[in-house]
Design goal:
By secondary structure, the protein is an alpha/beta fold. It has a single domain, classed as NADP-dependent oxidoreductase domain (TIM Barrel), CATH 3.20.20.100. It has helices spanning 36-48, 64-72, 102-116, 135-147, 161-168, 188-197, 216-225, 229-240, 253-261, 269-276; strands spanning 5-8, 12-15, 19-20, 53-55, 81-86, 88-92, 95-98, 121-126, 151-157, 175-177, 200-201. Helix 1 runs parallel beside helix 9. The chain is globular and about 55 Å long.
């Protein structure tokens, strides 16, 4: 299998193909999605299938996804790493407000701890950098929380390579989470920096938000393997770099099984070359 372990932050081994919880919430990541028992079943099945990296955020719902993770995974298996995010406030389905003030980051982190029913968050990711607050103050707040044992590792969401370099001067960064997939590789310089520094790169929209189904090369490779384009896209990510840790989300048990089966898909060098070409 190509889904070998990645050691997050130097001490947390995880399987590289994880699970993201955004799709357990309603449209626009607002409110619940259907029966909570279905969401709990998907989370538990993911862990049964060997997933050890669960990615969530306080504003998915808001609060809904974190509460579902706690309900499904309590007590949480010792080898499962739970990552969450803070720094963005939701006031409606279409309203997202960045807030990186130290006092707000502390309040958000402590609220996530309560919802997740945990003493420590394995990976706490700054969901967006706040341009109104100095980076040193935002990371300083997270470093204080880490010193208190409330955070084990710090991550960043949606940053450039230059921003990551600046952050690394101020704190140890275990992960970044940016858009990256077979058809969108605009953050290639960031991936190269992550590779050089041993930082996990959690690509969001790893399945291209539906666009992959229209890509003829992906479809042809999928047909040759009797697989789906989504499975090929996930397998390509796992082949592409050892630091890429995709966490595709779904609220469907069948789709979950399909996604996780991608870890067993081996792509030949010629197929990888063909897939590399469209986004080069």
């Amino acid at each position: 299998m190509i889904d070998q372990a990645f050691v997050l932050g130097g001490d947390l081994p995880v399987r590289r193909l994880g699970y993201g919880t955004a799709q357990l919430t309603g449209p626009g990541y607002w409110g619940p999605r259907g029966d909570a028992r279905d969401a709990v079943a998907v989370l538990r099945r993911a862990v049964e299938r060997g997933v050890t990296l669960i990615d969530t955020a306080d504003n998915y719902g808001p609060s809904v996804a974190e509460e579902l993770v706690a309900r499904a995974l309590r007590p949480c298996p010792a080898d499962v790493v739970v990552a969450t995010k803070g720094g963005v406030v939701r006031t409606s389905e279409r309203a997202w407000h960045v807030d990186g003030r130290p006092e707000r980051l502390r309040a958000m982190c402590e609220a996530s701890l309560r919802r997740l029913r945990r003493d420590t968050i394995d990976l706490y990711q700054l969901h967006r950098l706040d341009p109104a607050v100095p980076l040193a103050e935002q990371l300083g707040a997270l470093e204080e929380l880490r010193a208190e044992g409330k955070i084990r590792h710090i991550g960043l969401d949606t940053v450039t390579a230059e921003q990551l370099s600046a952050a690394l001067e101020l704190a140890d960064i275990a992960s970044v989470q940016n858009r990256y997939n077979l058809l969108d590789r605009s953050f290639e310089p960031l991936l190269e920096l992550c590779e050089a520094r041993g930082i996990a790169f959690l690509p969001w929209f790893p399945l291209g938000n539906g666009a992959l189904t229209a890509d003829p090369v992906c479809a042809a490779v999928a047909a040759a393997h009797r697989a789906t384009p989504g499975q090929v896209a996930l397998a390509w990510l796992l082949h592409r770099s050892p630091v890429l840790c995709p966490t595709p989300g779904t609220g469907s048990l069948a789709h979950l099984e399909e996604n996780l089966d991608a870890a067993a898909l081996r792509l030949a060098p010629e197929e990888l070359s063909r897939l590399d070409a469209p986004g080069a």
